[in-house]
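ARCHIVE CARD
Drawer: 12
Card no.: 0347
Subject: one protein chain, sequence and derived structure
Cross-reference: see card 0346
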Amino acid sequence: MEVVGLDIGFGFTKATNGKNSTIFKSVYGEAQEISFSDTSLNPASREEHLHVEVEGKPWFVGPLAERQSAKRFFTLDQKEFVSGYSKILAMAALAPMVEQQDPVKLVVGLPIVHYKSHMKELAGILSGQHRVALIGPNGKREETVVRIAQVKVVPQPMGALLNLMLGNAGEIVNKRFATEKVGIIDIGFKTTDFTILDRTRYSERGSHSLESGISTAFSIIAEKLKEESGINVELYRLIDPVEQGFIKIRGKKFDLSKIRDGAFAKLAQAIANESNKLWADDWDLEAIVVAGGGGALLAPVLKPLLQGSVMTPETDGDPRLANVYGFCKYGKHLWTRGPAKAEAQAAPAA
């Protein structure tokens, strides 16, 4: 049995089994024959060449779709994302990671605002057996079956706290987070999730989603670029330029640093205002954890605006993987340690 944490986000799809992890942009496109393929000068990583067939339909996923697909698919609509995108992106992440026919138990997150309405649908889409083929840069085809035996859907922001609280085998290693009242702000691409875990118990009253994430800042940047260049840059193609602070369009370099900093400051203020209002009565919060890929970007400007003791989780490598590491550890806590373990009584309720 394999336990995997999966986060199918609007910006990026992430997964880990605790040993291997993957992350790629949540964009896919129609696959087509590539007449010339030579990676000797710059070998492609697994994430850079995701050519998959899911239930007999071929797709390019992530960077390969950006580079090669004439028609690409990207959305910020949650209903469309779950029904039309989640299976393709999930299989592209899982197929290279799990052994054929090895039963997979999956923990996956959903934004709080969409949790109740899409929890059962997402679990149904991902459960069962899925025929997948992986096609390498040389055209070599590897067929497999991804067999998902069980799906546990949890509110998205729980992942970051679970990652801090649990060890790699699913054991409780940091009792502070199992015994204190903690707020989590998980800043994603489209949404920002707020939740409170009071001694690991989920608080409905203290949980909420703001329909603003990093894409909100990206939209401001894209509008400014359109004014200056006449080009409508897709939001997912702004991810690397925003981090670098500049973009080249038709050979001309556009400085993004000032507009980026202004957009980030505006978004951080909106998130802080929402947090301070939502948790006005929760003066007994021991800590506020700022998590997610967007959290890593906004933390410097967001921290001074929040009311309380603020921390950002330290992760080995990419901070965007914090949630899936937490999901994977939680899955091991649930399914490999057994309910008879004493500390299992402290497992978060969802």
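Annotation on reverse: The longest strand covers residues 141-155. The first helix runs from residue 63 to 68.
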